[in-house]
Amino acid sequence: MGFKVKDHYFMKAKKDNFLARSVYKLEEIDKKYKILSKGNQVLDLGYHPGSWTQYTSIAVGNEGSVTGIDIKEVNRKLSTLQNVKVFQKDINDIKDLVELEVENKFDVVISDMAPNTTGIKSVDQIRSLQLVEMVFYHLPQFLKTNGNFVIKVFDSHEAQVFLKEQKNQFKNFHFLKPKSTRSISKEFFVIGIGYTNAK
Q1: Cβ(67)–Cβ(85) under 8 Å?
Q2: How far is 12 from 30, CA to CA, in rounded Å?
Q3: What pLDDT, in 10s, does the model give residues 59-77?
Q4: Which stretches within the chain are classed as H helix?
């Protein structure tokens, strides 16, 4: 169901030369929780089309870097950004950070990934939670101790139960529904500050 509402944030993204309106969700999260800093190495999971990558590229500056992975074909529109590398990869297939042309774990992991939605609420919630569980499973491989984390979740009772179980992996754990989220949307974002890698 690919419906595009040409609302205020859609038009603003066009004007500001961002690839999608979702950029303003990350901007609000970053302003509120200070997720990104100059010089950070950031992993953007499911980056496509790339507005979060664009924002992060600016936030981390030339001394930082952004690595984006997605199962979709590489978006060439991001190739002009000097501190960005994007790969067509599945997170489950990455066995070593060298495959992403980095040596060390990342300071920040962000994910605006969503399943291909069916319009059937229960199915979409389950698919979203599967993605969230997958990312949490792989976090120890990618995120440094004391690192920060942002991920999109479709709200459900099962999601809330799962997230409560993950709380102790971070010093601080927040939920936020950004202002630019459409009113009918059931999505919200989880923000983890200070990764402890505790289970």
Answers
A1: yes
A2: 18
A3: 999 999 999 999 999 999 9
A4: 8-15, 23-33, 51-60, 121-142, 157-166
Contact status, residue 121 vs residue 106, Cβ threshold 8 Å: no
Q: Which range among 42-46, 73-77, 159-163 shows the weakest confidence by mean pLDDT? A: 73-77
Residue 110 placed within a domain: yes
Digit-coded pLDDT (tens) for 163-184: 999 999 999 999 999 998 878 8
Residues with catalytic function: 152
Assigned domain for 1 exists: no
Two structure tokens written together for 52: 């979060």
Is there a domain that residue 3 lies in? Answer: no
CA distance 57 to 173: 24
Residue 50 burial (CB count, 10 A): 26
Assign residue 48 the CATH number of its domain. Answer: 3.40.50.150
User: Which domain range does residue 85 map to?
Assistant: 8-195
